[in-house]
Amino acid sequence: MIWNISSSSPKLRSEPDIDSAISGNYDVNGIACKPSFQLLMDLANEYPPEKTSEITGIKAGLITKLAQRIGEAKSTEFVTHMGFSRTYHGDLSVRAMGSVAAITGNIRATFSGGHRPAVLNWNPFLKAVPDKPSYARLGILHLYDAVISGKPFPVKALWFSFINFLNQCVDCDKIINEIFPKLELIVDVELFMTPTARYADILLPATSFLEFSDFLPFPFPYVQLQQKVIEPLHESKSDVDIASELAKRLGFGEYFDKGEDGFIDLIIDSKDPSMEGITREKLKEQPMNLNVVPKLDQAFDIPFSTPSGKIELYCESLRDAGQALPVYLEPLETPLNPEGKKYPLSYIQGHSRFRTHSMFSNVKSLLEMNPEPIVEINPLDAGKRNIS
Q: HEC states along 22-68?
């Protein structure tokens, strides 16, 4: 619903009307109502710079200065990486930042690095048996329940590729003691003997990136060809070759009979507009630009996957959880809570510049420069603990 200023009455949001209130307090049949923007303002007023400073440890003046710069700038770009959301209630942090971007007018359609340059027709494979889907999607957290309790359907075997599941997914204790013992078969495709690989019933040796060809849709908006440098060593195979061999044994060999180059050609020759002018021969020489990026001054509507198709500051479906607005919820332990007094410091894990996750941790020259993990601490915190 919206509140129509001219008629001083509520109206359905779907009715064409630009004369709607964005602030104020209104009575609708005895029910006190506020527009979502007013609710957001009320929430913001609960956190003046001084209170926000207590929570964040950042000086109130700096918080005010940042707010003024965002509000007064002609345009602001909000740059985050995955770590921003990989915290307790990190989803609310992302929503809060999105709300700031929306109310300051810093919204523009962009394409993320996850854009797929072409849509392939996999129906013959995915619907191999008429009217009987041959696969189902299951999120990783739902996978836990599927293995342990059989809901929403039982999972008896897991095949891991491109992931060190035990190290990378949440609650390794649960994985080791409740998930792995329930499985009848664990297959892992790996280059290294990772913790996950040690639990595999069948361990298949994967090639390194030097031993297979691939088509890379990054760094966006470029695509490039990863060209095989050497033939696979020993008994290792690429994931494409492993999948192809498995497909043969399962009766789907015809869909996987052209190897790595065949899959690359499927994308390049897909007739998708994004691939226009891109050829394998040109890619052998240099990366190429996808034909999908809009010009900066190009105006167009942005479709949002919300019930209204618009930016929604207030999410009705999260109301019962108390998160209709991007509220601030404290982590489980924080120095502001009594429970946090035992551990008054917050630990933030940054990336090492000597490796990417665990990759390159076996390179001797890098280990000489960075032989063991280093802890960095603020001099003020160190001084209180007599750490020089």
A: CCCCEEECCEEECCHHHHHHHHHHCCCHHHHHHHHCCCHHHHHHHHH
| Contacts of 11 by beta carbon, 8 Å cutoff, 6+ apart | 1, 2, 3, 4, 17, 20
Query: pLDDT tens across 30-59, in order?
Result: 999 999 999 999 999 999 999 999 988 899
Closest listed residue to residue 264, CA positions, set 314, 216, 307: 216
- Under the banding of pLDDT at 50, 70 and 90, the label for residue 116 is very low
Beta strands in 290-357 (DSSP E): none
Element (H, E) at 367: helix 364-369
C-alpha torsion sign, points 128, 130, 132, 138: positive
Q: What is the torsional sign of CA 303, 309, 311, 316?
A: negative
Nearest to 311 by CA among 109, 99, 111: 99
Residue whose C-alpha is closest to residue 157's, from 138, 178, 182, 175: 182
List, in sequence order, every residue forming a beta bridge with 222; answer none if it has no partner. 289
Residue partners of 303: CB distance under 8 A and separation at least 6: 309
* Tens digit of each residue's pLDDT (9 = 90 or more) over 152-207: 899 999 999 989 999 889 899 999 999 999 999 999 999 999 999 999 999 999 99
Instruction: Enumerate residues 6+ apart whose C-beta is below 8 A from 236.
Output: 191, 205, 206, 207, 211
Inter-residue contact 197 to 89 (CB < 8 Å): no
* Burial call 372-382: b when 16+ CB within 10 Å, e when fewer: eeeeeeeeeee
Instruction: Give the H/E segment covering residue 172.
Output: helix 172-174
> Considering only CA atoms, which of 63, 45, 44, 41 is closest in space to residue 54?
63
* DSSP code, position 115: -
Residues 6+ apart with CB under 8 A from 269: 275
The CA R_g of the chain, rounded to the nearest whole Å, is: 27
For residue 37, which of 22, 18, 17, 19 has the smallest C-alpha distance?
Answer: 22
Q: How far apart are CA 316 and CA 325, in angstroms?
A: 9
Q: What distance, in Å, lies between the first and last C-alpha atoms of the chain? A: 60
Question: Which tokens hold the place of 31?
Answer: 């029910």
* 177 three-state secondary structure: helix
Position 112 pLDDT exceeds 50: no
